[in-house]
Design goal:
Largest sheet: 8 strands, mixed
Number of helices: 21
């Protein structure tokens, strides 16, 4: 008998690089619990996000649509009211969708106002929460960023005796230096020092416990729970025992070359001038950050161990799909860059591990999948799990379940696409570009990575001969490089030409409906020569359509001279 999935635990870490899990190859940072999840499921080696920025990347996960489709191009751009998300697709199937943690969602207050939707209503809340019912919303960075000024986590900290106007910052993201002085975790040079907060009260354990609370309270209704961790996103500080658990020499070597700075691409050069990039290039800064970053990743893995053990005890591992992923990675000083917003592998290739308890997935347990998969594939996978009909006119992605079941679709994608709108960054100002032109798009086929930059030359990297992407071939006159740039440019253009805005009428409906014949059945006669022409066509009309409505039939009878009337002329 096939074991079916009842629930889905959708776990996302913010700014987590794939190469910082031991199952993805980190030699010193051991993550046994996520490694164990990979042994029970499938590890995807070539998973790519749709944007290197939190907000647009997450909206692609939640909608199954590319950034070009859903329109959220940066962190403070709202997802427009009416855009369908996971919750909208799954609720009609009887599935509850809840949020525990971060979304980086900005509610479309203007759109709700225009449509007369009360933002405090259930519909308004769902529009503002990416379609989720918020069990615990916490985007971090309180209270000065415009997010919730006093979230539950701050209330929790005060109850534990950690006071202050902003305990999130004063305790969870503040350290004490060697002289006993309080130092903000915002300053990168202090990232190696322990946070003031005891581990059990820090953000990651707190959020994990809230997920357990939800599972205790969930009842019998099937659910998708989005457990979304703030870390290892900056501030890169972690409490003891994780602070100091690793030394700078345990970190992966920085990947950068002086050659990258010689005649660089203008957009890349401008991004190396960003404050965060210049700071990561300062002596000692990266070493401090790596100590904190690795500790944060180790903390997440330990919490995964506690969570999976809790689920085992409650029998949830038998009927719950688990998806572990990240919204993007982090440069961490690689390529003379900090943070994100370009398309190098450390940022756009992210971890993706899926455990499916369905017995049809037994054949792939513990395997690695090399197919090019994207963040937009998660939403259609969830829809597939619950038996929903595919909606390719809405979702750009495809279900991953065939890959989980050991099947290889013959028409799987041959490029992964990623988009970046850097209009909000200093690079645009330095380049004196209007916002409409501050766009970059990536097409990657597994070997060649092509980057189209509006108003500038393209970039090209050959990851076979240059796996660290140190040599930009965008200006190379080598015939092979010229050919690859042209090929991927056309592939990207073909991708961009696909219509993605006809979301209210499905392809299936169009394919199963003879539109022109149906128009005629409704009495709209386009192109008919005479009555005989329409009489012949009526023989093909199908009984379930409008011509068998008595009112429509009467009109058609009159038009073909078949109407019986007693009226005198």
């Amino acid at each position: 008998m096939t074991q079916r999935v009842k629930n889905i635990l959708f776990i996302m870490s913010d700014q987590l690089r794939a190469d910082h899990l031991s199952c993805y190859g980190h030699p010193k940072l051991q993550t046994p619990h996520l490694d164990g999840l990979a042994k029970r499921g499938v590890l995807f080696d070539n998973a790519y996000v749709q944007s290197p920025v939190c907000g647009p990347s997450r909206m692609s996960y939640y909608t199954g649509r590319y950034m070009q489709s859903h329109g959220v191009s940066w962190n403070f751009v709202p997802l427009k009211a009416g855009e369908m998300t996971l919750g909208d697709h799954l609720r009609p199937l009887g599935v509850r969708s809840v949020l525990i943690g971060k979304t980086h969602m900005r509610g479309d207050s203007s759109g709700m106002s225009r449509l007369g939707i009360d933002p405090e209503s259930q519909i308004g809340i769902r529009i503002a929460e990416c379609g989720f019912d918020p069990y615990e919303r916490d985007d971090g960075i309180h209270p000065f960023s415009g997010h919730d000024p006093d979230p539950n986590y701050n209330l929790y900290l005060r109850k534990q005796g950690f006071g202050g106007d902003n305990p999130w910052e004063e305790w969870a993201n503040t350290v004490v230096d060697e002289q006993g002085q309080f130092r903000s975790g915002w300053y990168l040079k202090y990232s190696h020092l322990p946070a003031r907060i005891p581990n059990e009260h820090s953000e990651t354990p707190y959020t994990t416990r809230r997920a357990m609370d939800f599972m205790r309270e969930a009842g019998d209704q099937p659910w998708v729970a989005h457990l979304s961790f703030i870390k290892p996103h900056w501030p890169y500080v972690v409490p003891k025992p994780y602070a100091g658990m690793y030394k700078p020499e345990d970190a992966l070597p920085v990947v950068r070359s002086e050659e990258e700075l010689k005649d660089p691409h203008p957009v890349y050069a401008a991004m190396t001038h960003h404050r965060v990039s210049r700071t990561f290039a300062k002596p000692g800064v990266r070493d401090a950050v790596m100590v904190g970053y690795m500790g944060l990743v180790k903390q997440i893995d330990d919490e995964m161990g506690k969570l999976f053990a809790f689920m085992e005890e409650r029998g949830l591992m038998d009927n719950t799909m688990i998806v572990f992923c990240a919204d993007h990675g982090d440069f961490l000083g690689d390529h003379w860059l900090g943070d994100k917003e370009l398309f190098h592998q450390p940022v756009v290739r992210t971890p993706l591990i899926i455990y499916d308890p369905d017995t049809r997935a037994d054949a792939t347990r513990g395997t690695r999948c090399q197919a090019l998969v994207e963040a937009v594939d998660i939403a259609p996978t969830f829809l597939d799990v619950y038996g929903g009909n595919p909606v390719p006119h809405i979702m750009d992605g495809r279900s991953l379940r065939p890959l989980l079941f050991g099947q290889t679709p013959t028409d799987w994608r041959n490029i992964a696409v990623c988009e970046c709108d850097y209009a909000f960054q200093d690079a645009r100002i330095e380049l004196q570009q209007p916002p409409i032109d501050a766009w970059m798009r990536m097409a990657f086929d597994g070997r060649w990575k092509y980057v189209l930059c509006e108003g500038h030359r393209s970039m090209l990297f050959d990851l076979q001969s240059d796996p660290h992407e140190l040599t930009d071939l965008g200006t190379s006159a080598d015939p092979e490089h010229v050919r690859q740039r042209a090929r991927l440019h056309e592939a990207l253009f073909e991708w961009a030409r696909r219509p993605r805005q006809r979301v209210t009428v499905s392809d299936e409906m169009i394919e199963n409906t003879e539109i022109q014949a149906r128009i005629a059945e409704n009495g709209i006669l386009i192109g008919y020569a005479d009555e005989d022409d329409l009489r012949a066509q009526r023989q093909t009309f199908k009984p379930r359509y409008a011509s068998h409505n008595p009112l429509v039939k009467e009109a058609l009878d009159r038009l073909t001279g078949q109407h019986v009337t007693t009226e005198k002329v």
